[in-house]
Design goal:
heterotrimer, A alpha+beta (about 650), B mainly alpha (about 250), C alpha+beta (about 250), A: about 650 residues, Flavocytochrome C3, Chain A, domain 1, Methane Monooxygenase Hydroxylase, Chain G, domain 1, 3 domains, 5-stranded parallel sheet, 17 helices, 20 strands, globular, B: 3 helical TM bundles of succinate and fumarate reductases, about 65% helix
């Protein structure tokens, strides 16, 4: 496999503009001759489908939800970054670019990140025009706030529901195209395979989740915008249905999978309350703007938070990182919390959290102002825990939240299978080893509204006059048969344990061995334990019901099967990456005071893995990273 | 706009319950074709009805001033506008407005009620636990017909006199007294007026919503108005049969 | 804690359904209602009985997937709460809890507690958007939006599309859903160009599938986002304006 990132030549500021100029165009009359399939209707998928519909392409959009509005982008709380410099505090495209590359611990591609920073400005314009009700100043102009990992206020937000509002904007744009007839929307339908004919992605095989019918659909190009794989941990902040199946099936058909070990653990989630916990809930990182994080100095302190005097509290982030304080990047904040809890200073009934305290801000800004900023988050917290953050500090603990790794894509967001494009969290592209807060929404929308529609046009222009392969082609039949075969197998196994049982077991291994801190021995044991558990799963899973009606267990069985293989790749990738960077922390590679130690000499590359068949180890391909504009330095937030 | 042919199996599983109101119909039929339009009509005709009920109640208070005052007022209604219009000219004009309003109010209510039944063809199998929907709002479909029947009876009793044994055309005072010396009539009138009060209590609030009269500064007053209005009407109206029956008016 | 659950089971839209009784034992008060259903489902799988199908996804009250009638209330007891945010501390140990799917003509049953809510998408499709194609947007700060207007629009825009308003409404009406989306856009300066067309198309599409408003106010209490029925009044006003206003003059303020 040859990995060519197709980064255009020239100064970084003009790369995207020049590239766009050099792209081939499709004239309006010809656009409707092209069929494009979009899988997933979250921020990236809905935005891409809507925009391509506006351009006049024939788009079919699939989602496994009952409506595009339910995609997990909706749960993003804090905000979206953009280099508008409305706060006049020294922000610029270059600074957003710089912050993102640095925040990503120098494992992202400069050209992609620069484009992201440039595009961020148009995203805000677009969303405001769509009617996204961003927070406003009394004068009517847009309000900004700051976010972890940066020193400027460049985050636009809509209460604590920014993701919801941006997704609804994209969803509405999509529904407008559905009405116009340019996009056909197919809900409650899950993609189960990508079909590659003559070396190009030419269609997909999907399963109707209501009737169970498996069908093939062909197109000139396929876009995957199917999100990340955080649910491999079982307990994560991802929605219950979020899965990696679409991306993983693409990997099995030849798309390289990159940087699988780069997963982000979000520092501010509500700690688990017990064994039956089904998912974890994130509390927006924006809370760290006004909340102070602390633990009792004494390991055995069992007093309630309000009984612990100031002198006996350890505000460990402020102590260890005086200049960034509570606003250090996510990975740093998460590891610091883990250290406190591991050393026995955890708080709460299970001693599995740290305090996030608003008392000082309430005193300084008043209860009303705090309510205005975080009211809905406080309510959410109270609903879940039964405690009022106005009275008692919140308890928080890190949880899996985002996956920087994903399908490898070039500058055009095309995977290593021609004709298969990947957007949003499903690709690996822009965040390197760690994503900054409020950048996921930015990337999803940049990919969807601005990048994919342009680069797809360039790809499609080369196919003018051709028809996609018919769905009666052997490749489609083979893919359908393989889905049918897998379905039959699960329904007839009739073992002892439910799918969720195996998922939980897998999650425990992945969290313990490929979680916040990883070491060689642990990763090697994961590489033994995961395949063993997978064999148990294949032998002993119990899926009831039938293939021809709604069957939640069957859907989950497909997803969990893919998580097994993915978890193995995560361990393999983590084992290979003998350094600590961003979300990937190898215990063997840390400085004396416990900070991540990067190895730019040997690991300044994207690790893209090529599928070699079931049960075979993947082959590693390295895409070397070069930094001409932001020079790698040890990240320091002290 | 919903397309002619469903574009997915999910969409195909849902069938419309009503035809799309024809926007092309001439104004105001296009408005009346929609449920929101019908609610406007109900609100406007409701306001007309409320105006009538208010004047009716206020006029009838003259019963406490004696037979002459009341009969004079009744005659005044018939001669209102004379000599520019024929005797009872204005009265019949007002009556026809009332009849049209009543017919529209009833027709709109009935067609909305039947559409709403189509919208929930399968009832909940378990017991509903309502939070906001109150007794008044949920019994509009019963208080409405009760009031309609009452109006018919009231016309037979005191306008046409058909159901009033001792009816003397033109002598309102006498007719009222003759009617309400009968206990069953008193009871029927009391029940009907309580139904009217309940209907008004919801209707007089609801019409603001239906007509989009909503202002944060005034919203709390809408309930106050509806309560005061319903109470005043019921208090005034029920006082007549009671006063007659107890011999305060005779 | 232990609970007795009476759950509606129905294998498909054309099959007769009925309540089945299941026991949920060893429940902690910190568990959400959906986690209790998870526990019940794991038990059922153990016994070889097909688990209860219900829609759910984010489990933090924002995706709008979950929703069921719990003891006769949409999303169960408690205000501003989606089913996934309903925690068992709300109930008493030993309670019997009845669970039923949303019911409305437009919400055809898919399976057990899962219903088809695609009619809500039809309403949005008919006008719940501002027509601005990608690339056509002006600079974001060009049009100031008064804070109170942005806040009011946001109040309406918080709708998660769960359908509780329809489920709770005795008339099976989707007025709160429709009005919330419409008013989110109609309140903003950006939404003025299409305001009356939007009002007309959304209302008329809504009425193809749903009942009408008789101002019970039940919807606003069922709404997990606490959206006020004020938006319904605004919608009624906009709809009337759509029918009587000379739209050639809508460019004038």
């Amino acid at each position: 496999m040859e990995l060519n990132a197709h980064i255009p030549e020239g100064p970084i500021e003009t790369l995207w503009d020049n590239h766009r100029f050099n792209m081939k165009l499709v004239n309006p009359a010809n656009k409707r001759r092209f069929n494009v399939i979009v899988i997933g209707t979250g921020l990236a998928g809905a935005a891409a489908a809507a925009t391509m519909g506006e351009l006049g392409y024939n788009v079919t959009a699939f989602t496994y939800h009952d409506s595009p509005r339910r995609a997990h982008s909706i749960a993003a709380q804090g905000g979206i970054n953009a280099a508008k410099n409305y706060s006049n505090d020294g922000d610029s495209v270059h600074r957003l670019f710089y912050d993102t590359v640095k925040g990503g611990d120098f494992r992202s591609r400069e050209a992609n990140v620069y484009r992201l920073a440039q595009t961020s400005v148009s995203i805000i314009d677009q969303c405001v025009a769509q009617g996204v009700p961003f927070a406003r100043e009394y004068g009517g102009s847009l309000e900004n706030r700051s976010f972890g990992g940066v020193q400027v206020s460049r985050t636009f937000y809509a209460r604590g529901q920014t993701g919801q509002q941006l997704l609804l904007g994209a969803y509405q744009a999509l529904m407008r195209q559905v009405d116009a007839g340019t996009v056909r929307l197919v809900p409650r339908t899950e993609m189960l395979d990508v079909v590659v004919v003559d070396g190009r992605a030419q269609g997909v095989v999907v399963r109707d989740l209501v009737t169970g019918e498996v069908s093939s659909h062909s197109a000139h190009a396929v876009v995957l915008a199917t999100g990340g794989y955080g649910n491999v941990y079982y307990l994560s902040t991802n929605a219950k249905k979020s899965n990696a199946t679409a991306a993983w099936r693409a990997h099995r058909r030849g798309a390289a999978f990159a940087n699988a070990c780069f997963t982000q653990i979000h520092p501010t989630c509500i700690p688990a309350s017990g064994e039956n916990q089904s998912k974890l809930t994130l509390m927006s990182e924006s809370l760290r703007n006004d909340g102070r994080i602390w633990v009792p100095k004494d390991n055995n302190d069992t007093r309630s938070a309000d009984q612990i005097p100031e002198a006996e509290r350890d505000y460990y982030l402020e102590r260890r990182y005086p200049s960034f304080g509570n606003l250090v990047p996510r990975d740093v904040a998460s590891r610091a919390a883990k250290r406190e809890v591991d050393e026995g200073r955890g708080v709460g009934p299970l001693k599995n959290g740290v305090y996030l305290d608003f008392a000082e801000s309430i005193g300084r800004l008043g209860r009303n102002e705090i309510f205005e900023r975080y009211g809905n988050l406080f309510e959410m917290y109270e609903r879940i825990t039964g405690e009022d953050p106005f009275e008692m500090p919140m308890r928080i603990y890190p949880a899996t939240h985002y996956t920087m790794g994903g399908l490898w894509v070039d500058y055009n967001l095309q995977s290593s299978i021609p004709g298969l494009f990947v957007g949003g969290e499903a690709n690996f592209s822009d965040h390197g080893a760690n994503r900054l807060g409020a950048s996921a929404l930015m990337q999803g929308l940049a990919d969807g509204y601005f990048v994919l529609p342009a680069t797809l046009g360039d790809y499609l222009a080369g196919l003018l006059g051709t028809k996609p392969a018919g769905t009666d082609a052997a490749e489609f039949k083979e893919a359908e048969a393989s889905v049918a075969d897998q379905t039959k197998r699960y329904l007839s196994t009739n073992g002892k344990h439910s799918v969720d049982y195996f998922h939980k077991e897998l999650g425990k291994i992945v969290w313990d061995k490929i979680g916040m801190a990883r070491d060689k021995a642990g990763l090697e044991s994961a590489l033994r334990d995961i395949p063993a558990l997978r064999q148990d799963f294949e032998r002993d899973v119990k899926v009831l019901g039938s293939a021809d009606s709604m069957n939640d267990s069957l859907e989950k069985a497909f997803r969990v099967a893919d998580f097994f293989e993915l978890a193995e790749l995560m361990a393999r990738d983590a084992l290979n990456r003998e350094e600590s960077c961003g979300g990937h922390f190898r215990v063997e590679h840390q400085t004396e005071d416990g900070e991540a130690e990067r190895d730019d000499e040997n690991f300044s590359y994207v690790g893209a893995w090529e599928w070699n068949g079931p049960g075979q180890a993947q082959t590693l391909h390295k895409e070397e990273l070069t930094f001409n504009y932001v020079h790698p330095a040890q990240r320091s937030y002290k | 706009m919903a397309q002619a042919s469903p574009r997915s199996t999910v969409e195909a599983a849902v069938k419309p319950i009503s035809r799309r109101p024809a926007s092309s119909a001439p104004w105001p039929l296009n408005l009346y074709a929609s449920a929101v339009g019908k609610k406007w009509v109900m609100a406007i005709t409701g306001v007309i009805g409320m105006g009538f009920i208010t004047m009716h109640m206020l006029g009838n208070l003259k019963i406490y001033l004696g037979a002459e005052e009341l009969n004079h007022y009744a005659e005044g209604l018939r001669t209102f506008g004379a000599p520019f219009v024929p005797r009872e000219g204005i009265l019949w004009m007002l009556r026809s407005i009332l009849v049209v309003a009543l017919v529209l109010h009833v027709h709109a209510a009935f067609s909305l009620w039947s559409a709403n039944r189509r919208a929930r063809p399968v009832a909940y199998a378990s017991q509903r636990d309502y939070i906001a929907a109150n007794w008044a709002s949920r019994t509009m479909k019963w208080t409405g017909p009760i009031i309609l029947l009452f109006i018919l009876m009231h016309l037979m009793d005191l306008t046409f006199g058909t159901w009033n044994k001792d009816f003397i055309s033109g002598n309102v005072y006498h007719n009222v007294v003759a009617l309400f010396t009968q206990l069953p009539k008193v009871i029927v009138y009391l029940i009907a007026n309580i139904a009217l009060g309940i209907h008004l209590w919801h209707g007089a609030w609801s019409l603001f919503q239906s007509m989009g009269v909503n202002n944060p500064y005034l919203n709390a007053l809408r309930r106050v108005f509806a309560t005061a209005f319903a109470l005043a009407i019921v208090a005034g109206n029920v006082s007549f049969p009671i006063a007659v029956y107890l011999g305060i008016v005779s | 804690m232990n609970f007795t659950l009476k759950v509606w089971r129905q294998s498909g839209p054309d099959v007769k359904g009925s309540f089945e009784t299941y026991q949920a034992t060893g429940i902690s008060e910190d568990m959400s209602f959906l986690e209790v259903l998870d526990v019940v489902n794991e038990d059922l799988i153990e016994q070889g009985i097909e688990p209860v199908a219900f829609d759910h996804d984010c489990r933090e009250g924002i995706c709008g997937s979950c929703g069921m009638m719990i003891n006769g209330q949409a999303h169960g007891p408690g205000t501003r709460t989606a089913t996934c945010q309903l925690h068992m501390r709300t109930f008493k140990d030993g309670d019997s809890i009845t669970v039923e799917p949303w019911r409305a003509a437009a919400f055809t049953l898919v399976k057990d507690l899962t219903v088809n809510r695609s009619a809500l998408d039809r309403i949005v499709e008919s006008g719940g958007f501002i027509s601005v194609s990608t690339g056509a947007a002006p600079e974001a700060n060009l049009i100031p939006v008064p804070k109170v207007v942005a806040d009011a629009a946001m109040d309406a825009a918080e709708c998660i599309g769960c359908g509780a308003c329809v489920a709770a409404c005795p008339n099976g009406a989707a007025q709160l859903f429709t009005a919330a989306k419409m008013q989110h856009l109609n309140l903003l300066p950006q939404g003025q160009s299409e305001r009356y067309q939007r009002a007309e198309r959304m209302v008329e599409t809504m009425e193809e599938f749903f009942g009408s408003c008789t101002n019970h106010g039940e919807c606003q209490f069922a709404c997990p986002k606490g959206i006020s029925i004020d938006v319904i009044a605004y919608m009624n006003r906009d709809y009337m304006s759509a029918k009587v206003k000379n739209r050639k003059l809508s460019g004038q303020s």
